[in-house]
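Aim 2 progress. For Selenocysteine-specific elongation factor, the working sequence is reproduced below.
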Amino acid sequence: MIIATAGHIDHGKTTLLEALTGQGGDQRREEKERGITIDLGYRYANLGGEATLGFIDVPGHERFIHNMLAGAGGVDLALLVVAADDGVMPQTREHLAILELLGIPQLWIALTKCDRVERQTQQSAAAEIESLLASGPYAGAPIFPLSSSTGQGVPELRHALLNEARNITHQADKNYFRLSIDRAFSVSGAGTVVTGTALAGRIQTDDSLLLCHPNGGQQQVRVRGIHAQNKASASAQTGQRVALNLAGERLKAEQIQRGSWIVASELLNPSRRLDIQLNLLADAPRPLEHWTPVHIHIGAQRLTGRIALLEASHIAPGACGLAQLVLDGYTHAVHGDRVILRDQSAWHTLGGGIVLDPNAPTRQRRTAERLAQLKALTLGSLEAALPSLLATAKNGLAPDALERQFNRPQHDWQLPDKTIIQPTSNGPRLFTQAIWQDNHAALLDTLTRFHQELPDEPGPDRGRLRRFGLPHIEPAVFGALIDAALAQGNIAATGPWLHLPEFSVRLSTEEESLKAKLWPHLESGGINPPWVRDLARLENCEETQVRHLLLKLARLGQLHQVVRDLFYPEIAIEQLITVILKITEQNDTLEVIEFRDAVGLGRKRCIQLLEYLDRLGVTRRFGNHRRLRTESSLVLRVKNR
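Predicted structure tokens for this construct:
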């Protein structure tokens, strides 16, 4: 069990821990000199039971509340220390608010210095505390009157803690390991050691993990040794205070900041935007405005950033709402993590929240669809949120992203009924059956509309079809839709062109008549057919009319457009391939000059033809040389005649 003390400065937190554990605090020189706890004080003690209890003595001074926040994560029970002679003080209220925002499951009150006051004063202090707790989640919390100096009431508190420790058991969950580092130091003969509370998962010696820094960088490290609850151990698990002896390339303790993360590689997800459910304290000095600068505490990490409100222009004291935190550094939060917000000067706690999406979008963050997703995420578990998330996900949900977001390995998910796992080029996606069918219907509707608006074209390629009517569908998902529709026979493909199976481009009567006039000129031209302007002059018609027809025939596969306004019939292309076959019989490579001499055309035309044959897949260029691609279907057809 992990126990944290909290409360106003000089109310006796450190002295109480000495009385409970028999161990002195304030180990650092500056702490002894000043008589206050500046940094986190960790102590472990066996109070007479089987389990070792971990105590965190967090600072009470206003300037050091960020240290208190660094130690509060993963705590099972908080001891709020209140001196009977002072009663409730400003830091008492602030620490209580922070404990509530962090979701610490239990709170007990240690009413200290009872030996210094009359019984009536003690009762008055207890009544004041009860009144303070009455409206919050810790209403009715037990109060233990005691004196650390005389020992009065200390055995009763120790006995209660032992009983509670027997009731609290931490089982190693099946999630990936996470730890937010609150200390890093070097040990002679061992090397770099980091400490923190294991927030999830289980590790063993020799495991490989990632050390993630607030600047977004990461480094692979190996676990050389483990201390769990202040004892050497071969493993550590959720809820334990852990010290890890790490090994890594050029790893030095002084390079590791408080707030760095140790995570399993599956959780690597450096993020600078977090969508949260925000709660503003009732005693906040003013409403929280959009884009307010704040200090943000996540685990042992402290960052600066701004708040983007998603539902309104401000949040009133005591109210809650959806917001996005735009951070100045990187964090590795997951769904359900608690965050604490302090003002720009870091003197006052404003409120806190629960992380909903640790990889929040930069755009369209206030749309109705996005807000519906965030409201679904407030439901808690992955299984609770999935039905609503899937119902609004036109592009499906990526399982690996959900795995990182919720820290839930995929093997133990319970997917809703009628969930489709659809492969895509970017990995599988989860869809509801209804949304996948809607996307499929939208694809067919878009292709039908394309044919209606552009009946002279054989169909769009994949990119054009997506841009034409389905730009909101991601390319990877769109590709999967196309592949599924092709496999089912609902659409067809002719080369790169997509079309409905029953669709075909047809020439009008006028176009058929013009084709009959132009075709003999194209065929008689052989490997040097006339240009569009020459064809128009020969038949005394408009260039635009001729160009439109030849482009249409090219889309139908009846002509090859080598360059603008120059079209070759298939038979002419086959003649060119025959020439290249003869040239390459004696030499594997082909040069422009050889091709020019063989076909008797100018150098510019020859370069245009060879570049087209490159695009067609007949030849492949290597510097100034080309090689015939013998696997080309056109080459094989000519050779087999």
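Residues 25-40, 60-64 have pLDDT under 50 and may be disordered. This observation will guide construct design in the next reporting period.
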